[in-house]
Amino acid sequence: MHYGMNGRGLGEPKSLRELAREHALLPLRVFLGATFVYAGLHKLTDSAFFHTTGTGSIGETMNAVRDSAAIPALVDLALKSPSGFGYAIAIGELLVGIGTLLGLWTRIAALGGALISLSLWLTVSWQTEPYYLGNDLIYLMAWLPLLLGGATSFSVDGVLPPRRRRIR
């Protein structure tokens, strides 16, 4: 009988432990992907979100957090074009979510998700006390395993041929 690197005979079923290890990031990937798709769609369909002023607008939110943000310069940058910033966040969330759900360029999608979460943590939720009640920091930490590990199970990345660097 021929044996693979894990000691199992070729064609033998994987153990529960091996299956769990192989699919460990799948629940996190589905949760983050679905959440970011929902967040992006919610913003894109909210009639008030892209306005400069008014209840529920991105401009109102940025003005409200400006003085309590960890990096007020980020808020000032967003306030130069609140609707442009709002569209960038909404479309970014949608693309990150779709890429994550499909497992397409998962590490790039996870980097995008981490950067969105980091920017929101440093601006919108920085003043939340105690810190663990602010969800942006938790989302930032949740993106890190996908950034490091990518997605191989039930993913487009898993069926694409691996890219190899050529050494010249």
Average pLDDT level: 89
Q: What is the CA-based Rg, rounded?
A: 20 Å
Can you tell me the overall shape?
Answer: elongated
How do the helices and strands follow one another from N- to C-terminus?
HHHHHHHH
The helix count comes to 8
Give the fraction of residues assigned to helices: 55-70%
Q: In total, how many beta strands? A: 0
Task: Give the low-confidence spans.
Answer: none
What's the story with the biggest beta sheet?
none
Seen as an oligomer or otherwise, the chain set is single chain
Strand percentage, roughly? under 5%
Structure classification: mainly alpha
Distance between the termini: 39 Å
Structure write-up:
The protein has helices at residues 16-22, 26-45, 58-65, 72-80, 82-102, 106-123, 135-149, 156-159. The chain is mainly α and 168 residues long. The longest helix is centred in the middle third of the chain and has 21 residues, at 82-102.
Descriptive key words:
168 residues, 61% helix, 0% strand, elongated
How is this structure best summarized?
By secondary structure, the protein is mostly helical. It has 8 helices and no strands. Helix 2 runs antiparallel to helix 5 (82-102) and helix 3 packs antiparallel against helix 4.
Write the layout of secondary structure elements.
Elements: H1 16-22, H2 26-45, H3 58-65, H4 72-80, H5 82-102, H6 106-123, H7 135-149, H8 156-159
Helix pairs in contact: 2-5, 3-4, 5-6, 6-7
